Structures are given as structure tokens and as C-alpha cells.
Structure prediction request, 349 residues.
Amino acid sequence: MDRISYLTRRLLLVIPTFIGITIVCFSLTRLLPGGPVELKLMQMRGVASGGETAAGGSANASGVTEEYRKQLEKQYGFDKPLHVQYWDWLVVNRMGMKLESYSYPNKTAWELIKGRIPVSVWFGLSAFLLTYLICIPLGIAKALRHRQAFDAGSSLVVFIAYAIPSFALAMGLKMLFCGMLDGGWEFFPLGGISTDFGSEPTFWVWFKDRAWHMFLPVLCYVAGSFAMLTLLMKNSLLDQISADYVRTVIAKGGTRKRAIWCHAFRNALIPIATGLGGIIGLLFAGSIIIESIFDINGMGLLSWNALNGRDYPVFLALLALTASIQLVGNIISDVLYMVIDPRIDFSKK
Prediction:
């Protein structure tokens, strides 16, 4: 019952947390200078000061007035009180999903986002699975071979991968294996996530083509997290192996293998589970740098273009979506925490 009460409180806490995040970010888009109204006025003044003599030039020059500013504010909905704007964004326009993009005419924020979601899900899920399927076994192997040659050699490789910035690794791999250099290898495509087949391919052909396109971007994306997760798994397992309860199991006649796999391993997964929610949010939000280098139209690149172009409807809709994913990930972490360690007492929380 304590667990159900704890999860209920955590679920109820999601609502004010989400509202707090979106209120702060929404207010910043309205209060900070450099918004779409200011950009439009700067464009108008640029046309006026440029001495344009084409038709409409004089109209542009005379149109930069306070009245024109008010018209723009009304057009973008900035003439209403801040709390009314937020309510319209959150409730009437469904977290801004129904609002039209400033940069893409006749396209709502949701129409732009839903086209990028499959790309980011494929990209994020591949990176997520690859990270955990490699780092957890590698961390276990390093813990069981602590201070041996395998531990030292794997640590060297892991830290080298961690030290190389993701953009530098991406550019280096792209030049070496995408045919950008004379005499280089052309094993992978320059960018994109799929080939234009012209007709509907079979699932296996589609899967191989998608894996071929995504191999280098996913490799660059997860390289930086290898060291953190691998060492976290290794150190957590080492701490559990040296604990008193493991020595008690061995003293009572249990084998070391049983003490590690039946007792220490489960407790060693607790730090991994608690950080799962944050990793899920980061992975599915996309990577601006990797997506830009490999020309992947995911949510990370869309978010950057929206922020850079002051496309607030798209940016705030993406923010609401990624914040929701992050909060759900935190709930998943709590559930896994309870499953892995049932000894935790939630009555005082």
C-alpha cells in the first residue's frame, strides 16, 4: 500500500512540475527581446533603409510604425495578457500543437513534429539499446576482472571514446568512411536515414538500409555515454561484491558465482535504474550536432531551427513533448527502483 501511495504522489507531482516548466519557458519567449515581432520589424526597417525602389518599397518604409507593431502583436497573439496567452497555448491549442508555425506556412506544430517522431524514436531507441546492451555487460566484465589486463585495456578504449567530442568523431568517421577524402572508403552514405527505393521495399531490405544509414550517427551518439555507464556499472558491482552480505553468503557455503549473480548483481542495478529516466528524455529529444552533420531530420534539428528562427509555436510544442517524456521516464525509474530493491520503505517519503 505504501508503494501505491508513493507512486500516486509521484504521478500527481508530474502535473505541477510540467506546468512549472512550461510557464517559465513560455514566459521567457514572451518577455525576452528578439521575438518574431522584433524580427519582422527589423526586416521591414532593413528594406526601408536599403533604399528599395521596387513597388511596395515606400509602403514598407512607412509601415514601420507603432500601429504596425500593434498589428503584428495581435497577429501573433501577443496583445493578450500573459496568463491568457498561456491558457490559450496550453488548453485551447493543446500545448501549442494546433498553432501554425511561423517558419513553415500552413503547417501546424504537430504536423511538423509528427513527421520527425519516427526518426527520433528510431535514432533514440537504437542508441538506448546499444548503450545498455554493451555497457552493462562490459561493466560487469570489468568488475569481475578488476585490475587485470582486460580491465586496463577496456578502460583505455572507453576513455579515448569519451575524450573525443561527438562532433569531431562524427566528422572524422564521415570523412574516412563516407568517401569524402581521396583514397578513403565509401562504406556508408553521407547522410539521411533511408534510400529512395522508388517502390515499397520488403521489411528486411528496409531494415538493412535503415541500419546502414544509422550506423555511424548512432555510434557517435552513444560513444560519449559509454564511459559513464560502464564505470557506473563496474563500481556499483564492485561495491556490492565487497559488502558484508556477499561474504556472509560465501561463509554459509554458497559459491562466489551464486553470491554475485543471485545477490550482488540485482543490487548493483539500482544506480543504473535510477538514471534511466533522464537518459530516455535525452535520447528521444535528439542530438542537434549529430543530426546536423549527418543530415537527419529529427526533433533535435527541428528544435534548433525553431529556436534559431524564433518559431515559438514549434519550439514550445517540442519542449512540452520532451518534458513529458522526461517526466514519464522519471516515473519509470521509480517503478524499476521498487522492482529491483523491494526492501525500500516508502512510508516516510
Summary: The chain has two domains: 2-92, 111-340. The mean pLDDT is 83. The CA atoms of residues 66 and 212 lie 55 Å apart. Residues 111-340 form a domain with the MetI-like fold fold (CATH 1.10.3720.10).
